[in-house]
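User: Hi! I'm working on a homework problem where we have to compare a predicted structure to a textbook description. Could you give me the structure for the chain below?
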Amino acid sequence: MKIYIGLGSNVGDRAGYLRDAAHRIADHVSIIRTSRVFESTPVGVSNQPLFLNAVMEAETDIEPRRLLKILKNIEVDLGRIDRGRWQMREIDLDLIFADDLIINDQDLRLPHPEAHHRNFVACPLAELNPEFVHPITKQTIGKISENLEKDFLRPVVIDWEAPSATEVLCSNDSLINHGAMILRHVVDPQEIQGWYAAAKDLFSIDSAELRRYPRKFPSRSGYTPPGIEGVRYDGPSNLRHFFDFKPEVITPSAIFNSEMTKAWQKLHAIAMTILAKLSGNGETKLDQIIQNGEHHLRVAQYLNDQTATFSVLFPPHLDWSLITVFAGGVNSGLAIRIGQRWHRVEIPEDAVLIGAGTMLRLYKPEVPSMRHRVMADSLERISLFLFTEPRHDEILPNGETVGHMIARLEKETRKED
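Assistant: Happy to help. Predicted structure tokens:
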């Protein structure tokens, strides 16, 4: 099925929103080509910034209602705020045509009812396929475009191939600038696939058996079943569960225990290297606590629910650790806030992502904490990440012990059972 998607933005980095949306759309459909970008005046409410608009031509087997839901989820993922009809929009994505389908339902109207009235839709679309016939008006898009006023339509050049968020985080200064960085060529892809296979094997064990390994604090070893842990504004979810691991923990699977010990050792070594670089030459207390810190590996399974009406599985949050080391090689569904926008980040299979936590700022105020969330529109997946914290009896620069600070943060951000 050939489809046409309209893209628009008039808030903040307009070109960046269009570019990010185009990259996300390409994860779901096969892009044929994209029109030029046009600057246009707003419709309905004129007292707001000018829009940037473009149209994408693509092919897909996804049925229109599911596709529209994907587009709306992308809007949410990129930070769109619902200000009401005709108001400013970080990103606006519309399904304009799907072949010659005509659908007039409450939740979906095809063709888009305003497509033949809007120059910022018809003109870019005419660049792509002027002979396409509007299934209702029976006019070609080229003819429709000719008849529309174009005084307030101006072509704009943007760089569709600007670096992705993943590429930005591979730069040497990204930890200082964004609170996150990607390190390439630090893990063996075959080794890491063994970790994921062992983790998948663990979660195939009967949940009643896994419940014999309740998670304990402060060691954090053991299992957290689905629907138990809730985050403020989100609540418990049956779509996520965890096993927190340390090498001394006895687990219900010998293979899991062996592979996770290897994973812990590898990610722990990377964490220690990063923290040693941050500590400098003994200039801060950080270098005195990293060797005796608490380090535990979390194995998280996120299930996919195609019927879910939300796109964020685990809401925006900061880790409480010094740093968190995320293993690559899978679609983690991880989204990171860079500046004022959310970006999906894919970690290459030979890489790790380093995320700065809340506690690190107490020692290194110049490093921002990484705000991140986990999206729900991906396939079922397993993630591995190592948390690194000072010991719980360590006194922090703010005068609290680590244990007291974690307890306080948990009380503030977790819902009570």
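For your comparison, note the following. Residues 165-413 form a domain with the Jelly Rolls fold (CATH 2.60.120.330). The radius of gyration is 24 Å. Good luck with the assignment!
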